[in-house]
Amino acid sequence: MNQRASAWQVVLLAFVVSACRAKAGQKCDKQGDCAGDLVCDCEDETEFACRDKAGRRCMTLEQANAICAKSSVCKDDGMCEATPRAGLPSDVIGPGCMATPEICAKSELCRRSGRCVEEERWCVAGSDEDCRRSDQCRELGACARGDKYCTAKSEADCAASARCKSEGKCKLRDGDCVN
Fold first, then answer.
1. Are 125 and 115 in contact (CB under 8 A)?
2. Domain-by-domain residue ranges, the chain?
3. What mean pLDDT is predicted for residues 92-119?
4. Is-above-0.90 flag for pTM?
């Protein structure tokens, strides 16, 4: 009888805990605060709205994705998809957006700065070839993959850049084209 009472207590406790979770539109502090498949994310695309957690609400993943898709981090960094997925920390702060391989490869960021590959939820330069195809290569001489970004690695790249022609920055120093 004790085992049966314990099992019922566990079931009752699980029901009470799930019933106490926040519903859609209600405030939350972290992912586990929301009921069911809802995620805790910013209702605003800016990181500052979430720093003090005041801007976090429970919402569907589709709503979170829509916020990411129109955010500045999507346009600037290729982070266009909501992060609430298995394996991510439950206390993620910020706009809660991440990059995916598909987004990085097709992004404006890839064309502009050679950051065409997803690595740890960010778009990064994947190869020298990505960098060579980028606007940054033609304009700034940043034609080779550095740590995660494209960088200048040869005086020939600096000399061929628009920056050399317009500003006289044709010499290589510490990964940058300078006078």
1. yes
2. 24-97
3. 84
4. no
